[in-house]
């Protein structure tokens, strides 16, 4: 989409917003220091000021899409990720990046038509949660009206997409819902197989048999309901069945080349690389993820997405080479992984994450020790006592304090972990004392004369 020209009165706003984006990008790139809440708040106030100015020069009833809007979208994405990095997950600016990620996934679902009720419901629930959060901030006055209005507009647009998806599902007749859901699942399994390395003959066979079984239920090309009636929404299920057969044949015919034409190989390889990195982050995010890092991944995916023409990737001659569904699977998989990482972000600042992770590990170890029982000695419990002592000594006036003297988000969660560790340690000490008492009780039953001799020996 070509952006409209920037009006003369918006040029100073554009210049200011670009400057804010540059400062946020510099903040994101600086791995030597933790992101400071004071710096993020200053930039947040600066962008809200520019949005207020922009609202004053624009007409509320007109839709705008120029460079100011695209730059503002970048700024709000970066700000949102900064809020998540600081552990401020319950404040409305943190919702922006999640809403942007949901928009990408929902738009692709709408475009492909490959979804069922269980795919849509989680998004509907999450939108309700985010709306409650934004409304709370709006009513309490915690965030400026310019910010809450922007988010409410985004929420309304996404609600409209979700309603559209649900209405499309309601068009499918009750008799065909099980077939439709199964075909969606089979198609996903087929595409997932197409992306995997190696031959898939053994895995393809049961899927091919199931497709033939579904196809055999059609009479004269139509699925029949009870009493031989012809339910509505035949076209949806029939086209989905044909598409599954088409993918199946393509996988069989081009198994070695993974169904991707040479002209699309660079895009395929880049998407595979992004997917591998994001899947690794899903496994290690507690230790290695800084939420602002996700901005670069989102940007890369958007650039690839924009390469499509009428929903398809084309080569230099404008043709649509085979392997489209593989690329779309990878693209949508990456969008899904980013959303998963955003929605699983914990309300703990990056400054406290190392402490939270250490406590989580100590707690897990103590639980295992307690589960399998003793006997214990003071020496066995010493490493855990030392670890907790070191963490306790980091607190000032009962709180964990940041490098700049501020109190980072996540104090409650970290303190809860710390208290649980201390409780587990005390329980282990008590069980150790009970075992020692039992040992001395057994000693009392022994012959006093022989005891001394035995001890000497």
TrEMBL record:
GO terms for cellular component: cytoplasm; nucleus. Residues 434-457 are annotated as: Disordered. InterPro entries: UPF0662. It holds the Pfam family DUF2408. This is Uncharacterized protein. It comes from Pisolithus tinctorius Marx 270.
């Amino acid at each position: 989409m070509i952006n409209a020209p920037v009006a003369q009165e918006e040029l100073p706003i554009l210049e200011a917003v670009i400057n804010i984006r540059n400062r946020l990008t510099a903040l994101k790139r600086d791995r030597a220091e933790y992101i400071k809440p004071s710096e993020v708040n200053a930039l947040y106030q600066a962008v809200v000021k520019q949005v207020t100015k922009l609202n004053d020069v624009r007409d509320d009833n007109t839709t705008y899409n120029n460079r100011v809007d695209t730059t503002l979208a970048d700024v709000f994405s970066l700000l949102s990720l900064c809020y998540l990095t600081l552990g401020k997950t319950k404040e409305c600016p943190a919702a922006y990046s999640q809403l942007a990620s949901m928009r990408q996934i929902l738009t692709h679902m709408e475009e492909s038509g490959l979804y069922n009720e269980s795919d849509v419901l989680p998004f509907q629930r999450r939108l309700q949660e985010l709306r409650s959060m934004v409304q709370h901030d709006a009513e309490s006055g915690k965030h400026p009206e310019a910010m809450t209005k922007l988010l409410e507009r985004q929420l309304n647009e996404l609600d409209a997409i979700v309603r559209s998806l649900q209405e499309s599902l309601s068009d499918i007749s009750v008799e065909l819902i099980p077939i439709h859901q199964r075909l969606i699942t089979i198609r996903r399994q087929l595409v997932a197989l197409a992306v995997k390395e190696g031959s898939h003959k053994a895995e393809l066979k049961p899927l091919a048999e199931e497709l033939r079984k579904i196809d055999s239920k059609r009479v004269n090309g139509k699925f029949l309901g009870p009493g031989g009636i012809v339910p509505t929404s035949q076209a949806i299920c029939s086209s989905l069945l044909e598409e599954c057969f088409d993918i199946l044949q393509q996988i069989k015919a081009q198994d070695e080349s993974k169904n991707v034409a040479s002209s699309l190989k660079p895009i395929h390889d880049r998407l595979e690389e992004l997917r591998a990195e994001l899947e690794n982050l899903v496994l290690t995010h507690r230790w290695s993820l800084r939420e602002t890092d996700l901005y670069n991944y989102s940007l890369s995916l958007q650039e690839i997405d924009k390469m499509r023409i009428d929903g398809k990737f084309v080569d230099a001659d404008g043709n649509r080479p085979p392997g489209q569904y593989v690329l779309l699977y990878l693209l949508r998989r990456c969008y899904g992984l980013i959303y998963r990482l955003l929605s699983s972000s914990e309300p703990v600042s990056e400054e406290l994450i190392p402490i939270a992770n250490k406590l989580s590990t100590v707690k897990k170890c103590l639980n295992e020790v307690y589960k399998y029982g003793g006997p214990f000695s003071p020496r066995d419990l010493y490493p855990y006592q030392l670890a907790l002592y070191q963490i306790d000594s980091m607190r000032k006036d009962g709180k964990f304090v940041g490098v700049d003297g501020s109190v980072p988000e996540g104090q409650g969660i970290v303190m809860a972990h710390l208290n649980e560790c201390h409780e587990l340690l005390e329980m282990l000490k008590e069980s150790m004392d009970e075992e020692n008492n039992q040992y001395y009780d057994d000693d009392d039953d022994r012959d006093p004369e022989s005891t001394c001799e035995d001890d000497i020996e």
